[in-house]
Each structure stands twice: as C-alpha cells, then as structure tokens.
Amino acid sequence: MIKDIAAFGNAGILSFIQALNVNGIVSGTAKTFSKFSIMARIFSKFSTIAETFSRFSTEGKIGILGITCIVLMAVFAPVITMYPPQKITGDSLEAPGPGHILGTDDLGMDIWSQICYGARMSLTIGLAVAFTAGFGGGALGILAGYMGGYIDQGLMRVIDVTMALPSFPLLIVISAFLGPSILNVIFILVLFSWAKPARIARSQTLLLKKNNYIIAARNYGAKPFYLLWRHIFPEVMPVLLVLIIGISSHAIIAEAGLAFLGLGDPTSKSWGMMLNHATGFRSIYFTPYWQWWLLPPLFMLIFLLLCLAFISRDMERILDPKLKIKKGF
Amino acid sequence: MEKKKLLVLFSVFLTALILMTAGCIGQDSAKAGTLAEETLAENTADGSLNADVVYLIGGDYGYPQPFTIYPRGPGSSKVGMIFDSLVERDEIGIIPWLAESWEVSPDGTEYTFKLREGIVWSDGAPFTAGDVKFTFDYEQKNVPVSGGIESGVVDNVQVVDSGTVKFVLSQPVSTFLYKLTGFKIIPEHIYENVPDPVSFLDPQAVTGTGPFLLDEYNKEHGTYRFVTNDNFWGPDTAVKSVEFVPVSDSLIAFEQGEIDFTGISPDILDRFTSDPDVRVVQQPAFWGYQFYFNMKKCPELNDKRIRQAFAYAIDRDELVEKIARGAGKAGKMGILSEDHIWYNPDQPEYGYNPDKAGALLDEAGWIDTDGDGIRDKDGEKLSYVLSLGSGEVRIGELIKERLSEAGIDVQVKALESKSRDANLKNGDFELLISGFGGWGKDADYLRTRYCDTDSQSGMSVSSGAAVFGYHNDTLDALGARELQESDDGKRMEIVYNMQTVLADDVPAIPLYYTTNYDAWRISKYDGWMNMYDHHARTHSILSYLERDGIAEKR
Questions:
Q1: Domain A57-319, what fold?
Q2: What ipTM describes this predicted complex?
C-alpha cells in the first residue's frame, strides 16, 4: 500500500512539475522556474506527508504531534529557555514561579532548561542507537541473506547468541566497566540491539531474492550491489523503519535506566540523570521538592515513550497488509 | 471503540497535567526545611535504657576482624564490638578498659599497664599480657586496617607478669595513650597460627574479649547480628543484641520501625521535632569532605598560588547551603573544624572570591590566551579530572561550575566509592574528593596527613602527604615537635602554628564538615552516647552498655 501511495505521490509530483514547467517556459526565465519547482516539490511533499498522516489513527496522530513537539523543544532549547541548564541561576530548590518556570533543583539549576536540553540527550541517544543498530544490523542481515553460505550461518549464530543474552544486566556490567560517557552508552546499546533488525532483514532478503524479477535482473547482468541497493533494500526499508522506532524507544528507556542507576555521564543533563539526582536527594518524598524536580522528567519520559509506541503501532498496522501480500507471493 | 480509546487517552493526559500543576503548590512548605541548631527543641522525655534488640542500618563493611574490615567508621566500629583495646574513649576523655591503670615514666618513654583480672576470651581462654605483646609483634608484619601503631613509635613491648605489660617507646609520643584506644587486642592462641590474616575468615577469627559476639554475617545482604558475650568481663550490655539490616531508604525504614536509629535530612526536621517519641540531636562537625590535589602527577599544583586560587574559587558556604542543606560548616584551610578543641580561630581566611582567584592565577602565569575560557600556560591548559565517589557527584558539579568561573576546567569522573578510595591510596588521580570521619580526633592527624616525614600506617581513607606529593619543611618540623611535646599547652600552641602554616599553603581543601541530625525512638532505646571526638553515636561501644561507674578511674 505504501508503494501505491508513493506511486501516487510521484505521479502527483510529475504532473505538478510538468504543469509548472509549462508555466516556466511561458514566463521565460529559468530562475523562476527553479524557484517554482522547489516550491512545488515542497508542496507535493507536504501533500504526501498529509496523506500519510491522515492514514494514522488518532493515537498515531497524537504520537506524531507529541514527537514533533519534543523535537522542536530539543532543537529550539536555547530559544525557549531563559538559562543554560548547567549554570547556577537561582537558589536551591526554588518552587516553580515566574523566575524559573518549573523551579530549580538542589544546585539552583533551572529545571525547565534541563528538561529541554535533556530532550536532546534522549533523542540523540535514541536516534543514534536506533539508526546505527537499525541500518547497520539491517545491512548485515541483507548481506548475509543475499550471500548465504558460511557467512550467513556464522552471522545467524552470532545473532542467536546476542538475542539470547540478558541485555539489561549485561548493559549495567559493561557500562560500569567502560565508564560513564555518552558514546559508551550508545555503543553498548547498539551492541545489544542490532540483532533483531539483522535477523528480520535477512529473512526478508531470503524471501525477496527468489523473486522472478530479481532473478531476471541478475540474469541481465545486474551486479550484486545494484540488486541490493535498487531492489532489496527499498523493500526491506519499511520493516526496518518500524523496528527503528521500537529500538529507539528501547534505547531511550535503557539510557534513562542506566543514568538512573548512576551509570551515565554524571554531569550530563539527561532525564534519567535528573531522576537519579532527584531520587538520590535524601528523603525527597517527605519534602515538597519531588513535585517539581522528580515529576517533570518522569512525565517527559513517559510521554515520549507513549508517542513512540503509538507511532510504531500505527506504522505496523499500515505496513502489515503489505507484508501479508508479500508473503503470499 | 474509538471513542473509548480517546477517553482513556484523554484521562491519561489530564492526570499528567494535574500532577504537573501540583508541582506549583506547596511553595510555603518548601522553605520550612532548614532549621538552625538553636531552634531545635530538646526532647526532654526519658526513654528506655534497655532493649532486647536494636536494629541499625546495614551494609557490607567486611568481616569484622581487624584485618578484613573495610576502612570506614561503620567498619571499625563493628570490630570494636568484638575486640577490646587497653583504653577506651567516652564522652569526656580516655577511660580505663582492658587496662585497669597505667603509669608513665618521667621521660615519657615507658608506659606500664596493669591489666584487669579475670578477663577471658569468648572461647574461654584467659586473656594475659602475652596477648598484648603478641598483638603488637604480629601487627608489625600484618598491618591492621585501622588502629595500628605507627612504625617507629614503639621500640618494644615487654611482658612484666601475666597481668602487667610495658610499652617502651623509642621517643616520647604525646598521643600514645590516645592511639591505644584504637589498638584492638587479638588472641594469641588463635592468631599465632595464622600467617595471612587477610584471608582468615573463620568463625575463630572473631574471638574477642569484647561485649558482643558475631552471631551472623551475610556479605551479600550486608547484614550483621551481634549478640551479648556472656563471658564479657565488663558492665552488662544494655542492648542484648544488635542487628544491622539492609534498608533501601533509611527514613522510610525508620518510620516503619524497621530500624531504630537514623540520620535525617534537615529538610524534614520538623517532621520529627514534634514527635515526643523521637529524639533529634545534631552531630558535631567531625565528618568532612576533603578536596585533594595530586602534586606528584600535576607538578604545576606545587605552586601554592594555584592551590590558593582553588580555595578562593570554590564557594564552600554554597556547598553547605545546597548540598548539606544547611547542616554543615564550611571548611577551614587550617584543616581542623571549628568544633575541634584545638581549632585556631586566627588563621588566613579564604572566602568565596573568584576575582582574587583570578588574580592569583594571573600572577602565577596562567592566562587564557586563546579565549576559550580555560587558562593556559606554555601551551598547557589548566584542566583536570576530578575523581569522586558516586555519592559526591553533586558536589563535583557545583565545584566544576565555580572553578570554570575562575578559568579552571574540571571534568567530573564518578567512581564507585571503593575504587575512589583505592585510587586515593595509590595516588592515581589528579584532583579528588573524599569524605571521611575522624576530624574530631587528636590534632596529631595534621602531622600524619600532611607531613611526609614517615608513611602512615594502615589503610586509612584519609591519605597521607607522601601519596599526593606534598612537602613543607616548616610543617614537618612543627609536626615532629608536636609529636614529642608532652605538655598540652605547648602542644596546642604548636598545633595552632601548624594550622596557620596549612591555611597559608593549602595542601588540600576541606570542603565542609557535616553536622547531620541523628534521630532515634526513645521508647525503643535511649542509651546512645558519643565519644568525645567522634560524630556517630552508633560507633561507640559504650552506646550499647550499662555505663554506670565505668569511668570512675579516668
């Protein structure tokens, strides 16, 4: 179905561009032509995005809107906050007020800034891990599936082992061993999440490479790389995307979990670290401070994960019929 | 179907919103936290002076024998429950313990102790002067974790008769009797056959003369159970057994009655001050955080102007205010805390003054030439790694922020506290923060910590000058004189001078001394007492005993 949309979208773009092309020729300047064409492209992109968006259920839409909000928050963090998150700008544990929208933590650092900049940390780690693991694992899986033989067998065994390992206890041990830093956290999380996309990409590739059109293409002399890039990868891509969303939510939880346990970078301002510091504050539940120190990062985490879950569920729903059709081949 | 889902979603977000706004309420109660010491109303009610069992906060501190315990207060105090020393400390001073009385020769080099009669080890074997001599000889080779006698102090130990033992010192040592309060006597008939006491984890290893026996120890859970030693020579135990149990949140555990004694945060003082069954008492400032410079690894720190700049740049009052929540006293560069009996009030002061810090660094040649906010000199940046325990991260963050104002870059490296202690001991750090007790002890620790004349005995967590490469001739000379001076008035004068020298030279920065609040239920057990030089009531063995008349002969 996605394919249909894409086809439709492409047709739309083509006709649009053609129409504008005529316009451009009539006006007679190449400059306006290019300008129009870009605008047309943007417009048509919007229309396809709107089209896809309309296919999402209500939860899916809320999810997308939520993610957009969080991304905007992260991107425009310096604009929408008054203070840098690591500067001491107020008294210790000020309650929310006009000076500090969400109050301050024990060191007098603004909590709203920490939330906004913390979004960067969560998103960066989530996306970095998801894309590295998703595409890296996917590429490995495709290669293994396509090449077959010992390489395939070897990789499958490695995947079996990786998937059988209990990830969180090992995460704790390894990150304690390697020491706290963002790169280490990303590295460790990638290490534990590449197996699933690899395995699924492999099975998809196995399925696809038996298709007549691919065999035909090969017989016409298509090189392996061409086949992988033009025929197989685009087909595996949608499934990988769904997995990537799943991995990113997993990575965000894992990062927050590690940070909460004190295994992240201790001076970073991530949500998990905020939770760690807040819960580490002696008897915080007997004081009013938890309301503005503990709750905001907690809610942001829950909200982000909810949004991701909504989106991934919807994408699965949208993509699923296509998978069924493929299997029916 | 769709509607139902929407409703669920909506309610989720609504609750979220409500809870978020809840954060805005309760501003007034937020400020009520910090109560000053004098407003702390004394709970005058009488409490119970006997208890069958007292529950305390657990945690693994190693097997409670002198060679395997972990070198921190809660550890060595557990050794003290099983093993006795010749003399003990109470609220006022040194009292006779295994030794009934003692004599000092006129030149101060011979201490003769008359031991109590009828003392037996917990396995029934009699305790004699031979055990004392054995302990000393044994610990020459096998250094105990804490309480060992510095090498070179005692020349030899002689057994005069089975009830009399004589220590011959190689020079007069003013603090010798005080040092003996930590010198735990071990049984000769058991340890004579133990070549490596560090791996001696047999139940026999905890045979002592003390008031308690180790009934149960679980390393994994960090639990200990001590029960009364029926063979104990001394006063009856007021607490029949002491159990250390694991707790995740001490305050919740205290509220639920799982433990009978806890430290409480100043923010929640008023929760307990109104409770007639709870006694809240503030500790003296004898537990502190120290900021170390490693002058061996970073030679530029040998310039005292840089160290002074650190002292000016770190806002220690802010640390007390924010991290200790007001329950603390800012560190003095003369090392001794204000509560120490020999604190010198007339010493160089270092208030928070980033401009002064900047001026000092300028003077030392550290100038920010490339405009990145970090000072440099000869192409080298004024940038350090600050190692600290995971519990001190917030202190590190605050210090990092304040030092960056002065143009000093610091990266905080959080370690597990035991590996931090190991790094400190091995000198494997650039800057380091460590917190430990014992700041109320005899001021002789100024010598053992900051004079590099002789290596410090034991595996103390407050590492000595030789490790971090500090050397000061004046201080070394003062330290040597202080050690031999037997007149207290003159010694105090020397200690005052030492503080002035230290405050000028800043070999290390005491960040702040904590004055935490202890709380306990008086209906359960109210017999807690503090040693005169110590902060923690649970660490004193006398806290668990009937104390009538034990200090008659002081």
A1: MetI-like fold (1.10.3720)
A2: 0.75
